[in-house]
UniProtKB/TrEMBL annotation:
It is found in: Cell membrane; Membrane. The keyword Transmembrane helix applies. Signal peptide: none annotated. GO terms for cellular component: plasma membrane. This is XK-related protein. One of its GO terms (biological process) is phosphatidylserine exposure on apoptotic cell surface. The chain crosses the membrane at residues 9-33, 45-68, 161-179, 194-212, 224-247, 259-277, 289-309, 315-337. It catalyses: a 1,2-diacyl-sn-glycero-3-phospho-L-serine(in) = a 1,2-diacyl-sn-glycero-3-phospho-L-serine(out). It comes from the Eukaryota. Keywords: Apoptosis, Cell membrane, Membrane, Transmembrane, Transmembrane helix.
Amino acid sequence: MSWSLRTTLFWDLVLGVWGTTAFVINLGADLWIASQYVLSGRYLWAALVLTLLGLASVSLQVFSWIWLRADPAGLHKSQPPVRCLALLHLLQLGYLYRCVQGLQQGLFVWQQKVPSEFDLAYADFLSLDISMLRLFETFLEKTPQLALALAIVLQSGRAEYYQWVSICTSFVGISWALLDYHRALRTCLPSKPLLGLGSSVIYFLWNLLLLWPRVLAVALFSALFPCYVALHFLGLWLVLLFWVWLQGTDFMPDPCSEWLYRATVATILYFSWFNVAEGRTRGRATIHLVFLLSDSVLMVVTWVTHGAWLPSGVLLQILLPVGSVSFFLGLVLRLVYYRWLHPSCPWEPMQVDGARSFHPLEWHQLPQNQRMICLAQNFFPKAKDEAVLPWKS
C-alpha cells in the first residue's frame, strides 16, 4: 500500500470515528436538554425536542432498512441475520449499527498491507450510505432543533449553558455534514478529485454563513409567532415537495419510498440547497436561493412590524446586521469557491497518489453504490459530459 493511500485511509477512519462520536454526543445532549425542560416544568419544550428527535430517528431507520433490503444479495456477507437487523432498526439502532460497521470495515482495510480493491470499494460503499444518512439526520433533527433552541432562548430572555453548547455544536455539525456529503459524492466519480484543505475550509464556511441567517429568520419568527411557524413550514414544504416531484426524482427502489425521499429533500430545501435532478444546477440553485432569501426577508419584515424588541432584550439593530453580513459574506465565499477553488480535472482511467479508483475492466465486479452514483452525476453534470464512466459502459 502506498503511503498516500494509507494516509487517506487513516484520515477516513478518524473522520468516521469523529462522525459516530458526534452523533452519540448530540443524541445524549438532546435527551439531556429534554430532561432539563421536564425538571423545570417546561413540558411543551421537552415534547417538541423529543418529537423532532423521534421523527428524525424513525425516518433514518426506514431509509437504512430500505437500502439494506435493496442492496445486491450477498454484498453484506458479515451482517447479522435479517431478523436481527430488523430488530436493530425497530429499536432505532440501525444507523448506529451502520456507523459501527463502517468503522470496522475502515479499520480492516487500513490494517491490511495491500488491501484488495473489493475491500476498498466496499468501505466506500458503506461510507457513502452513512454520509447520506448523516445528512438526512442533520436536516430532519439537528437543524430544526437549532431553530427551536434559538427561538426558546429569544422567547424566554435567558439561555442556560447547555442551550448555548447545543446551539454552537449544531451549527458546526450541520456545516460538517454538508461538507462530508459533498466530499463523499466525489468518491463516486473518478473524474472528480477529492476536496483539498483550502477548498474544504471555504466550502465549510460558506455553508455555515448562509445557513445562519436562514435559521435566525425562522427562530425570530418562531419566537414571536409560535402558533404560526408550523403553518409556515407546512406551506413552504408543500411548495418545495411539488418542485421536487416536478424534477422527477428516481432515488429509491420503489414509488412509495420515493415519496419519503422527496419529503425529506423538501425539508432540506426549507433550510439549504440540495440538488436532486440531472442537468445544470446553476439555474435551479439561483431560483432556490432567491426563493429562500425572499421568504426569510418576509419573515423578518413580519417580525419587525409586530415588535422592535425581542423578549430577551437583544436589539434588532444587532441581530439583523449580523445576519445580513453573514449572508453576504457566505454568498461571496460561495462564489469564490465555485469560481476558483472548485476542483475539476479531465477524465483519467487510473489515478495515482492514493486516489481510490479502479481499472474499468474490473469495475463491474466491485460494489457500486448506485444510489450515490446517481446523485453524484446529478450534482456534477460535467462529469457525464467529460467521459463515458466505466459503470455506464
